[in-house]
Design brief:
Radius of gyration: 26 Å
Shape: globular
Number of strands: 14
Helix content: 25-40%
Strand order of the largest sheet: 6-5-7-3-8-9-4-10
Largest sheet: 8 strands, mixed
Length: 611
């Protein structure tokens, strides 16, 4: 909440920068013409307020970068705070004197100098201290029989839209083919509905209320990166490689860099339109501010006009797709960088951005499921997020869903080419190949896309396909499993020791056709929650067999039209979660709500090692 307020203030500062410059010019003119001291003092006060706000934000940058506890208001936005402060400081000094008369009093100039020192310290902090360094194990120069592990995670991939899971359109033919010799988990759930929360869960083996990566710029709690998937494999003697095309899923954002031997960043956003404000918005704004901008015509209208002009003049490509082949090419290049005497097994993690919006893929995929000329560009193939989707015409909603399915088909084709290349190179037979996602995408319940307060199955039910080395027979697992299970499962496949403090469990017994006790899965959204504060506002769901309980924690989100804080759905008879049956089963509601309340209370405070 405080971070959101601070961000709004920052945006106001940025908007006021031209006004500040104009104020300085007017002030100089008025002083030369002998204007009244009252007017001059008022204008000087305006400049002082702008400088004071900038000084506050510069101090926040220093506090965050210095790692002092309890100061996360500017986390992830340090460059923005510093840039705004620097601009205003420069304006102050430019207008310090005009015609021999001091426009800005000495105490303000002293404040500006202090702010500049703080900003410089904030920028230099990472280079002074540097990231923690992991100790690299000695290269294993003898044959290592442990399997390679190749993990491919696909952003915004809902199992509800995969033909592998019974969807009506043939969206995943290549994945379907792989599944004939792999194990498919039919009820695998994401622990969150947003990229950062989901990725931190499957790389850390813990749920969001533990790792605390609630938002896009959030980092996992201190002490968890060294227990992460990449760190565990690296410390056990694996060669660790990573490719990401979504900055919120990149190892850098999750503090895993010290344990990576090599990584590459595929940056498909640059292949869309670098001047699109929406490409910069996630780096500048939290979810509340993004939601505010997305619903205001004063923002959407000029953005659309700008993009139309850029598309018309060829500055931006017409298709809104993210190119998954680029990430796979980077992955193959990293695999080829092995030294001749390096016999270590390899962990390769590739995270793809598509089918994330904008959905429209390039030909020949666009038009496969909807032949119309609409929703085929960067400009018009994104959904209306969250409850705003209810205002869309039904035909447009159906068309956007078709474009999403086409983007999924496009991604599946690139994945199939990657798998075939691995097979031809002889790298597939000795590897465990795992395919999953960070979260899904919603087109139902008048709720669009992902993130936000709702946790419907379209957003949470994601694929999990695991092909063990040498596996030739396909299997299906109907048991409820969750994202936090992925780290301990991959650890078991590689024969590594299990890290402590996990909330997930190894699914190896299910891979080997052995029994595993049934336990519930959990998912949650705490986007409006400060990572370093007690849990007071969010949504948690529990999936126990065919029952699913939605529970609001604390005060309901004012943007949520749901009148009830507790809803119960029977997924066996109502997989689309249309009918709340909480009134018919009060005993089940009481039991499941008690489990959620106990879990939330146990994780209410941040981990003791959280900075």
């Amino acid at each position: 909440m405080a971070g959101e307020f601070a961000l709004v203030v920052l945006l106001a500062c940025l908007a006021a920068t031209p006004l500040s410059a104009a104020t300085g010019l007017v002030l100089g003119v008025l002083r030369r013409r002998g204007a009244s001291s009252g007017l001059a003092d008022g204008l000087r006060l305006h400049a002082a307020l702008l400088l004071g706000i900038s000084l506050v934000h510069g101090t926040k940058v220093w506090l965050v970068q210095s790692g002092l506890p309890g100061h996360h208001l500017a986390q992830g936005n340090g460059a923005v705070w510093a840039g705004a402060a620097l601009m205003l400081t420069a304006l102050v000094f430019m207008r310090t004197r005009r015609g021999g008369a001091a426009v800005v009093p000495p105490w303000m100039r002293l404040s500006a100098v202090l702010m500049a020192v703080l900003i410089l310290q904030a920028w230099l902090q990472p280079w002074i201290h540097g990231p923690a360094k992991a100790v690299a194990p000695a290269l294993n120069n003898t044959a290592d029989n442990r399997p390679d592990v190749i993990l491919v995670t696909i952003d915004t991939f809902s199992a509800k839209h995969a033909s592998l899971y019974g969807y009506g359109r043939a969206t995943t033919p290549k994945l379907d083919a792989l599944a004939t010799t792999a194990t498919v988990f039919d009820r695998f759930y994401a622990n969150g509905n947003f990229t950062t929360a989901g990725v931190a869960s499957f790389t850390g083996g813990v749920r969001p209320w533990t790792h605390r990566a609630f938002l896009a710029p959030s980092h996992v709690a201190a002490g968890l990166p060294q227990q992460s998937l990449v760190a565990r494999f690296h410390d056990a003697g694996y060669r660790t490689l990573a490719v990401s095309s979504n900055p919120w899923a990149a190892p850098t954002n999750l503090d895993m860099n010290p344990w990576l031997d090599a990584q590459a960043e595929s940056q498909p956003w640059k292949r869309l339109c670098p001047w699109d404000p929406d490409n910069l918005l996630p780096q500048l704004a939290g979810p509340k501010t993004r939601a505010l901008l997305a619903t205001q015509g004063w923002y959407a209208a000029p953005r659309n006009a700008l993009l139309q002009a850029l598309l018309k003049h060829g500055v931006c490509p017409p298709s809104g797709h993210f190119d998954p082949t680029d990430a796979f090419q980077h992955a193959l290049q990293l695999l080829d960088t092995r030294a001749s005497d390096d016999k270590r097994p390899t962990l390769l993690w590739v995270h793809l951005t598509p089918p994330h919006d904008p959905y429209a893929p390039p030909p020949p995929f666009v038009g496969t499921f909807d032949s119309s000329s609409q929703a085929r560009t960067l400009l018009d193939s994104s959904p209306a997020y969250h409850y705003n989707t209810s205002a869309l015409p039904n035909d447009l909603r159906a068309r956007l869903e078709a474009r999403y399915d086409e983007a999924l088909l496009y991604t599946d084709a690139a994945f199939g080419d990657f798998v075939e290349t691995l097979r031809q190179r002889g790298q597939l037979d000795r590897a465990a190949l795992v395919v999953s996602a960070d979260h899904g995408e919603s087109f139902r319940n008048d709720y669009g896309a992902h993130g936000g307060p709702e946790l419907f199955d379209e957003v949470l039910h994601i694929p999990l396909v695991i092909k063990l080395p040498g596996q030739i027979q396909g299997r299906r697992v109907a048991q409820v499993t969750e994202q936090a299970d992925l780290l301990p499962t991959l650890t078991s496949i590689a024969g590594l020791t299990m890290p402590p403090g996990l909330e997930g469990r190894s699914l190896m017994p299910l891979l080997e056709s052995r029994a595993l006790p049934e336990v519930p899965a959990f998912a949650m959204s705490f986007e409006r929650q400060r990572p370093d504060a007690a849990l007071e506002r969010g949504t948690v769901v529990i999936i126990d067999g065919h029952w699913k309980l939605h529970q609001i924690v604390g005060t309901p989100d004012p943007l949520t039209p749901q009148p009830k804080s507790t809803r119960l759905f029977n997924l066996a008879t109502d997989p689309l979660e249309r009918t709340d049956v909480s009134g018919l089963h009060p005993d089940i509601v009481q039991r499941l709500r008690g489990v959620i309340d106990a879990k939330v209370q146990a994780h209410r405070l941040p981990p003791s090692h959280t900075p």
